[in-house]
Amino acid sequence: MNINDISKCNIFAGLKPELIEDILISVQTEEPTFKKGDLLAMQDEPCNRLIIITKGSVKAEMIDPSGKVVKVEDIAAPQALAILFLFGRKNKFPVQVTACEDVETLIIHKQSVLQMLAKSEQLLKNYLDISANYATVLTEKLNIMSFRTIRQKLSMYILKLSDGENSVTLDRSQNALAEYFGVSRPSLARELRNMQDDGLIKVDNKRILILDRNKLIHMIKFL
Question: Is 140 or 102 the better-scoring residue by pLDDT?
Fold first, then answer.
């Protein structure tokens, strides 16, 4: 068990490595490894374990009833998966998790997580904070996905990033943003050009200058 790698995970923030090691030794854990392309979790299977990525990266994908696969996000170590879904009446993995490269993990089963959280107030606070933050991000994603058009999605996304400023730097590449919206890369690029031609924004790679904030706001309120 590499405590140095594990201690970098945000769930253990503020805890000394010695305390982390003592806590983990006292509960049941596993340290499986996965090859590129291996599944770490399947969508809708019971979420009965906490998976912490200690090395490597994975991708989270959602499969709709038609079989269409939508990439939700890339997750790189050190990171804990599906914290928000470990407890509750219908605790299932909301996405399929696949290794993007060789991955090392620390797995803590649900009952051991409860025992672990009972041993440290800081650890419990970290868990609750991460759950709350994830719920906020999930709410924002659902809000964006509720819009029908790419223009509406982009307007909402740009306004959210801008925080009142007129200059925005996209926090994702166009490929990643297209995956986030569940649209094709060419469709996203075309809509960015159209919004620029319509005088709403000016695009310079990942930098966006908002030219008409009121029209962007109107876009998400009334379309």
Answer: 102
